[in-house]
Amino acid sequence: MGAFKLALLLIFTLNVCIFSQLASAQLMQNYYANICPDVETIVRNAVAVKLQQTFATIPATLRLFFHDCFVQGCDASVIVASTPANTAEKDHPDNLSLAGDGFDTVIKAKAAVDAVPQCTNRVSCADILAMAARDVVALAGGPDYAVELGRLDGLSSTMASVNGRLPQPSFRVGQLKAMFAANGLSQEDMIALSAAHTLGFSHCSRFADRIYNFKRGTPVDPTLDQAYAAQLQVTCPQNPDPNAAIDMDPVTPRAFDNQYFRNLQQRKGLFTSDQSLYEDSLSSRSTVNAWAQDSEAFSQAFVAAMTKLGRVGVKTAGTDGNIRTDCGILN
């Protein structure tokens, strides 16, 4: 019986891998060359205009892409608005902290694309989000890269689909590895994508347990630099303003760089999930140390990880998805 179960598991795993490869194989660079040839320029220009309005465009868009791909695959289902008959992904507690600027970036880019007659309703919201995520990284000084395109937008969006699909600030390396592996991503991919926390901010409630009444009985998490913890306590008192926020990278919060890893070396990772990458000396610390020293190696790993992330659960067959006329409303 044990051998039989193992055989079934191997067959299931093989089928998942084959399905994943087939799905990603249908994505390609320059997918819209004969459909909407200037789409990438249109999207990047729209993102640049949005960025002039607020820097929050960058971390908000990047985080939106991650949250979308990890739930039902990269299908823009996170953008769909709730209706009286259905509570959508975006209203799940794990998504309520997503900044509106990420949604607005995609919506405005979609409008700019659809304003070109040749392109109207021919480019998916999912692809626009993937392009915008690449563009905000480049505009923040990070690597630029070719994006694989050809995704369709998902046909459903439910709050229940989010349950247990997104990593939490309290996660440690083992939990992170398991969740990323479930999406076909390696430990190296996980560490590279975690470095997106070099941009953006967090509300105090997301890390309050590390600076007050730490669960081990000490007032402050011992893996957090004590001087840094004192600074955090100034901005985040025990009953903070709900809108109070902290830059996740205390050194270069507006630049996409490898400072994230140097911060971990100094025990200035804001979340447990960040700092655990350095604290785990047997698993992930060596990668943190390597990328803290070699920004080019990190950039290459990040591009590889974003490319793999962009293949997760994609819909390319007409029976699985479509192109929404409005990113926030299912067709």
Automatic annotation (TrEMBL):
GO cellular component: extracellular region
Cofactor(s) the protein requires to work: heme b; Ca(2+)
One record GO biological process: hydrogen peroxide catabolic process
Classification via InterPro entries: Haem_peroxidase (IPR002016), Haem_peroxidase_sf (IPR010255), Peroxidase_pln (IPR000823), Peroxidases_heam-ligand_BS (IPR019793), Secretory_peroxidase (IPR033905)
Name the record gives this protein: Peroxidase
Disulfide bonds: C36-C119, C69-C74, C125-C327, C204-C236
Pfam family, one: peroxidase
